[in-house]
Each structure stands twice: as C-alpha cells, then as structure tokens.
C-alpha cells in the first residue's frame, strides 16, 4: 500500500478575506426545502445522520449533497442534475441489488441483460457505467473484467447519482457521471434493529443493525450491520445466497476532528450461467461477408445445473478523516483498500468452463477545503491529490471432453496506477453560483499474457468542469454546465491489446424548482454528450467480449420528488435518450446504441396513514416503463426490443399503532413485477429473459 498524498494550499493574504467554514454561509436570496422534523430515535430508514453523500433529506427529497462538490452543497444550488435514492425510498421498495435500487432513476436503463444475479449492470443516458461510474463513499470502486464488487442495499444509507462528467473532481470516471453508494455510519443515539424475511423461491433471510455511543461522552460511536440469506431463484440450480457483515467506528476526540473507519465482508453464491438458447440466422455485412447473428431466444435453458456455480468473496477496509484547523481551513482524507476473489463455473451438455479472478485495489483522496472572500464573492476552494492502484489476475479454462473442472492456465495480469491533482472553486455572489474545476491525471498500465512481453500504456489527461446557476427568491434555479472526462479501462479489446482510455464531454442546461411551502423538488434538464473509445460488449463465437466505440447521446429528463406531511409521497420521472454510433464499423456507424430506449418513464407513489382509523397502514405502488430499442448495434428489426412495463407494490403495517406494547414492530410485503411479465430482452447481439414475479414478506423490530 502506498502512502497517500497530502495537499496543501498557500493563499496570499492580499486582496483575500477569510470567512468562517459554515456550509450554509450564503449571500442573496436562497430558497431551502422544508426542515426535517425527526420524532423518536431513528430518522428515516436506519437513523444515519450526516452521511457522506446525502447530508440531509426529507422523505423522498434530497436537500444537500457532498457527491456533487465534496462539500455540503444544497441540491437546488448545484449546477448539475442530481438524482437521489433516499433512505425512505430504500425502506419502501426494498431493492435486493444496485440494479433494482436504480430502477426509478430517470435515464437509467436496467435489466438490459435480463435476469443475471452475478452482476449489477446498467446504463445512464446511454452510457454503460457498470465498470467505471460506481463509487463507494466518494472513492472509485475498482473492478476487473469478470469481477465486480456487488452491493448489499441493507448496508446503504442512500444512493446519490451525479449526472455529467466529474473527472475534474473524482479522476477516472464515466463521461455521464458517478453513482455514489453511501454506507451506513455510526449514530449518536442507540439504534437496534433485527429482522427476518421470507418469500418467493424458498427465500430465508435474517438481518440486524445495531449502533450507538461506546462511551458516556459520545466521543466513540460504533455500528454493526449484518445479513444472512439462503434462497433460490426462478431458475433451477441458480441460488441467491449471501453473508454480509459491515462494522463501522467513529472517533470524535473534539469538535474539530473526526475519524470514521468503515469495513465490509461479503460472501455470495449464485449460478455461473443462466442463459437461454439463441437462434442464429445468416446476416450479410456491407462488404459481402456473411456472419451469423441471433434472431431471438427460446425458453430452453443452455446451462448444466450439475456444473453451474459462481462464488465471490469481497472485502473492504478504509477510513474517512477530517480535521478543522480553524474556521477557514480544514483537511480531509479518505482511504480504502478493497479486494475480491471470484470463481465461476459453467457448462453445457458436452463442455465446461471456469473463470477465476482476484482483484485488489487501493484508493486515497486528500484535499484541503478553504473558505475565503474576494470582495463580495465567497469562495469554497478544494485543492487535492488522489491515488488509485489496482491489480488483477485472471485465468480462463475450458474442457470440451466432459463436464468437469478444466485445467486452468497461468493467469493474465494487469496493473494500473492513477495519480491526479485537482482544484475546485465554488463561488457565490448574491443569487449567482459559479463552479469551476480542473484536474490532471497520470495513468500507467501494464498488461501481461503468460509467455509474452508485457504491454505498457502511459497516458495523461487534463479534465475540467464549469457550471453556473442562479438561485431566485421564489424557488426557481436555472443552471448550465459543461465538463470533460477521462477513464482508464480494465482488460483488452477484440483486436488485442490493452483497452484505450475512454474520454468524454457533456453540455447540460436545466431548471430546478423547490415549490414554496411544500417539500417538493422538480428538475428538468437537457443534455448533449459525446464519448470516444467507450467500452461496449459484443457476442463473438458465443463469448461476450469488449470492444470500443465512439458515440453521442442527447435528450432531456424530468423528475418530481415530493413528501407531504399527510403521509403521501411521490416519485415520477421521464427520460428521452437519443443515441448515435459515430465510429464502430461500417455496418453500425450512424445506428442507435443497442438496448438504449428513446423513451422511458416511471412513477412510484406511497401513502402512510398518519391518523385513525388506518394509522400504521402503509401502501405503495409503482410503474416502470421501458420503450422500444434495438437488440444489437446492427439495428436489425428481428431482435428489436418491444416496449415493456412492470408493476411493483408494497404493503406495510406498524403494529405499534395497534397496541403500544408492539411499538417498533413492523411488517411489510413487497412485490416486484407483480403482474409476472416475463419478456425477451436483447442486448449486444444476444437475447435473455427477465425475472418473473418476486414477493417478499419481512418482519422488523426496532427498540
């Protein structure tokens, strides 16, 4: 593990006036959403307060975020689109993975590869960010080609989605933005929760979440969150088993210093393959070459349940440190080590395959935050360095003689080192908010195939971001922004050699409206983005392989979030996404990117009765609509995905409303795909089927 960098800022005293480090220090007219009213101990889903990503929220409505700027900025003031899956949304919908958690996010395409419990896979605004856009507590979550860190939603406080390039702040990341997974943290009060769950496919699950002060002075806080699950799925021989444990400790020796240590261990087991038979037909390319492409999937399953296993063990350990030297300057450092090991076994009738990978990574980010004034302009300046180092070994073996363990070759290996230096300035003048940021990254990558010389790649990139917004006195905030991105990719591409870094740019304009007198936030935005050397997947000889393309995406998004005092909450969104391939092959240039629908919308509404005679009763329902799209980049009509919609529902009851002695006991039933629609979906030239209806029933007790 390398020692993380530490950044320092020297500021000339002339012409500069220091201002106190207050996150809400403002000038001019500012509209804020309603204050959060907290009754009892737990606020929201798990009582986490002051979490790193979403610092404050009220029901469905996020108020402040650190994901956008690494400072506690009000969501309505940031010149960028920010979508948030809050504690209350997680509590009501009970997603089982990251894909399900993002299902109601505008512009998010989930389920493109059908039912596949091995990975969390999705696109945002047409960009696949499965590998490059997921962050955990502000630090990039590194992955290897067949090893992706899985998410356990029970260990989350919230999910914050920042739209638009953020490389100037976060370094290597997707051109469309970042998804920041915010972990549960220790609370200053006692929080005790245990739960059990059962449901479809022989599901059996137990959970616990305990937190509170470790001493009388409250200078040491702790939390321990855990889950154990034994379950099948709708596909025979494909389990969904998991053990998850996440400890956390916070040390607060003074009001100016805080250190939080975050850890995780998870072991999961599912199937190595769950795919269906595809029918192939000849297709003539423009140069006259005949290739065979899929024409759709049958219901016949291809996998052999006798040799079908995917086990993954992952862990992470890190810390978040902050120290305020005075009311002007503070230092912040986040560091995390993470590692995973995967073993995937899959087979057909006469063959067997096995993939084993090990991946380890270290991420560190250190920055100074300085608050000062130049005349009437207030500045919040970040200056920092960060480091990312990842390494993985990958072995793939096949046995075509029998369904048995194949011999494993020596592993291929890749090492990547990324170092970045950045500066960001948030400026305030009256109602104006100006955000400027710049960064330079240095990348060094080495890829080695056994028996060959190592392939080396050394790249550097400068990225930036600029945004302007104006906060009016009546709740309306227009904004514009522009940013560029740079991202290093793991693995190789079809033509051999290390995958080239992906570069991107995006321009965006929009409006945010905090409806006066209500806890409601409306957002509308339009965007244009272009990406070069982006990673996509193509099925070649029945193997899903990486290739790279240039494409552009443009469209607009609408979102409404509201939570009223009468117990009603509503989340609604619509997205229009138009993609075009700019460079891939003569047969695809000018086509739409596969499996990206032009139209999608979703709505989720809930009501928790606050008064008799239905006090304690909670209901909720949602509709997810995904429009038509092509199943491959050739845009063949034979595998065009038809429009599809899914219905979800929730029913809960707080038994404390029935009798005070049952206070803290809550029962809940959730249904995903309530109407049991099982449809074919095609992506990257291969076709799958989605999961059918899934119902879970849970009982939780808090005291």
From TrEMBL:
Indicate where this protein resides in the cell.
Cell outer membrane
For this record, the Gene Ontology CC terms, alphabetical, are: cell outer membrane
| Positions of the TonB-dependent receptor plug domain | 75-178
User: Some GO term, biological process aspect, for this entry: which one?
Assistant: siderophore transport
What InterPro entries does the record tag this protein with? Beta-barrel_TonB, Beta-barrel_TonB_sf, Plug_dom, Plug_dom_sf, TonB-dep_rcpt-like, TonB_sidphr_rcpt
* One MF annotation (Gene Ontology) recorded for this entry: signaling receptor activity
Q: Which UniProt keywords apply?
A: Cell outer membrane, Ion transport, Iron, Iron transport, Membrane, Receptor, Signal, TonB box, Transmembrane, Transmembrane beta strand, Transport
TonB-dependent receptor-like beta-barrel domain segment(s): 283-674
Pfam families with a match to the protein in the record: Plug (PF07715), TonB_dep_Rec_b-barrel (PF00593)
Database matches in SUPFAM superfamilies: Porins
Q: How does it sit in the membrane?
A: Multi-pass membrane protein
Entry similarity comment: Belongs to the TonB-dependent receptor family.
Q: What is this protein's name? A: TonB-dependent siderophore receptor
| Species this chain originates from | Prosthecodimorpha staleyi
